[in-house]
Amino acid sequence: MRLSLTHYPGINRFVLDWLAGSPSATSFLPRSAAAERGDRSRRAGLVAALDASNRRWGLFVKDQLQRWAAGETVTLVAGQQVGFAGGPLYTLSKIASLLRMKREIEAAGRQATLFFWLATEDHDFEEVAQLSLPIGTIQRDGVNRQLDLLSIKASRSFESKAVVGPIPIPEPLITELLALYDLPRPAWLREGITFGDSFAALIASVFGPEVILVDALLPELRRAAAPLFDHIRRDWGCVQDALRRRAGELQAAGYAPQVQPREDGEYTLLFEIDQRGVRSIAGTERAVSPERTSTSALTRPLLQDYVLAPDVFVGGPAEVAYYAQVAPLHEMAGVAVPRVALRGHVLIAPKRVMRFVSRFGIAPEEIFAPPDELLAGREPEAVSKVRRLAAEAERDLIGKLEKIADVALPAEHALARALNRSVGHIEYHFNKLTDRAIKGIARKDRERWAAARELAATLHPDGKVQDRVVAWFPFWMRDGAHLIDRLLDEIEPDSDAFKVIAL
Questions:
Q1: Directed axis angle between helix 226-234 and helix 317-333, to 10°?
Q2: Is the Cβ–Cβ distance between 17 and 48 less than 8 Å?
């Protein structure tokens, strides 16, 4: 099933306009390839460090790195947080997008090098130390409860601003995952392994050496970026002014900037990482070594483009919007903006669930509709009758109250407020009664109700789009390499459409 991204819940307006080639959006971020190529002079100094770190995860990529450093290949980059057990499904979509684009580049007779940036410097422990699994109805406390997701998570027992990459994965989190799948303990979950190393080892075991992994905290990478960090500190005020101007321009064009300033009106540009791994907002008060300097959401694209000089960056909707907001910083720092491409969007459903769509006449654009709303629409005559009767009863009762007011108000002026309250209560309860009746109509066909409920739980669990929250690991456990093959066949990077594939 292939649908327009306009039907994908929550996609931001800037990205839709940008994909459509609207000048109001492309004036901030062109759709075409960059006219200038990035400075590749820093690549050679990273080859040994990237080779060594990838060897640690079981990837032998030295030859690829040397061709990349020599400028012999097209360079594509994507990235993600180092989530437990690989994170949500869209992580897989990003890597599949890279691989699909590589296929197309190589079919045209050129070689491509793929990098996946591991955001080990992030400090959102709650986000990386949890996994959401699709479960349907489960037994809890002796009561059947309709749940879409089972989330397993670890509680934080340390400083809340510590960077997550070097933190060991808590044992209870590993134990719970292994028990759920009756899984022998794999090397990527060995005792004491960190979130960063675990994520990297898992991705390496699935994709092999086709994708080179980049640890954002790699010391050699940070040292290569020292001139960039110095430039940001030296021109701090100009950078802040440029971001404020760009935010105003975006707002004037009808778009919301992806990142807002702090309460003091300044944008967070850099962090300092102390000896305990704790990040704190950095300014210009004192010098900080590059190894202890960490980027924000606004300066991470700048760092990535400065050290890797990619030809293409592949990101999600938020990352595309980041580029629109920070493009002036690239110009100020003399860093080329790569061609930006939107990752492919793919959702996964069992074949049995996908058959519900045709069996019950569900239109593709209705697949994210709540079950009550979806099925109520299949009973237009009964629903309209309920609404008509409720409206008639409401009008009749309110009419009687108004007649009471006509008689009593001359004698009791305080009655007006009480009558207004009564009318408000009546409208509320009539609306509630009408909604309840409509839901009852929707549920009268239990088979259709169950089908619509399962479709919603699969593609829009707990009111969130599947690929943003559901882990890809359960699909990998079930389908293995077939999952990757299907994704590569179906995914459409930089497209204004998304797909639901049946597995």
A1: 80
A2: no
